[in-house]
Specification:
Length: 301
């Protein structure tokens, strides 16, 4: 075995540079000076005898082999983190640091209800939250930037394990005076695709809403303009169209001070499943399941 092995610090520098594409920003992410990071990478290149990064005044360009090594370094760093996770899991559960990704269509509506319970039950837990779209959150999970993600299923998030929390029903939101009279629930066929407002690409709620309606033409016809659920609510309240909202947002008061009428969606699958997901084989699986059970109970309470 070679005596000269890369250090974890050198691998951290390499991965940070790959992620940020800039020496200054990579150094900030690693809490070191730019000269320290640059020197560490040169030592790494000298150690393994190859050039990993082509340096110019304006561009940081990884060599093909440099990219492959950076990907491998990311996996090594994740395995090293899991060593400490393994030791932590064997001791006091849900203590120390835990980094959780949360998607934007859940974070502002569910977290204010569940965080007090988490603080009360596990006062030694330092929970750091990172709000991202589902695709970005899953990428952060597999890169080791977060330990678990609170998201909505179904969604393909790679090689993961998960624990379901609860179903979150979808509602059709109408401007004042536009809600159909009669039946309380709204059938998907009754939605006017020319008036439908949905979130921009990248938000899985859009895909869940379209799948629940089971009307392929909605994807092409819908005016997908909203950057957030709050933006969609304002558009509907101003008579610009109708939209689909999750029940948790309505219960959290997103329709307060509006004239919007919301009716439950009548469909074969009118809900999304809220769940916690984590990397398959994580040594903290028991902790994540404990957390999931507490969050599910908080929702019921």
């Amino acid at each position: 075995m070679s005596t000269y092995l890369p250090t974890l610090k050198q691998l951290q520098y390499l991965v940070a540079l790959r992620d940020h594409g800039h020496f200054g920003r990579a150094a900030e992410a690693c809490f070191v000076t730019q000269s320290t990071l640059s020197a560490g990478l040169r030592e790494l290149e000298s150690l393994i005898g190859i050039t990993l990064v082509e340096r110019t005044r304006r561009v940081v360009r990884f060599t093909p082999l440099g990219l492959r090594i950076a990907d491998k370094a990311q996996r090594v760093l994740r395995e090293a983190e899991e060593l400490s996770d393994l030791a932590r899991a064997a001791g006091k559960p849900l203590s120390g640091e835990l980094r959780m990704g949360v998607i934007p269509t859940i974070a502002p509506f569910l977290l204010p209800r569940i965080l007090p319970r988490i603080r009360a039950e596990w006062p030694d837990l330092k929970l750091y939250l990172r709000e991202e779209t589902t695709s970005a959150a899953c990428d952060s999970l597999h890169r080791g930037h977060v330990d678990c993600v609170l998201l909505a299923l179904p969604y393909h998030c790679g090689d993961i394990e998960h624990e379901d929390l609860f179903d979150d029903r979808l509602f059709v939101a109408f401007p004042a005076g536009e809600a159909p009279t009669g039946s309380n629930a709204i059938e998907a066929d009754a939605i006017d695709e020319r008036r439908l407002l949905l979130l921009e690409d990248g938000h899985c709620l859009k895909d869940h809403a379209l799948a629940a309606c089971n009307r392929p033409e909605l994807r092409a016809e819908a005016a997908m303009l909203g950057t957030s659920l709050h933006t969609l609510v304002q558009m509907v309240d101003n008579g610009l169209g109708v939209t689909l909202l999750p029940e948790m947002a309505i219960k959290a008061g997103i329709l307060d001070n509006t004239d919007i009428i919301a009716r439950p969606l009548d469909a074969d699958h009118p809900a999304r499943r809220i769940a916690i997901v984590w990397r398959k084989g994580s040594p903290r699986e028991k902790e994540f399941r404990m957390l999931a059970h507490a969050l599910a109970k908080s929702h019921v309470d």
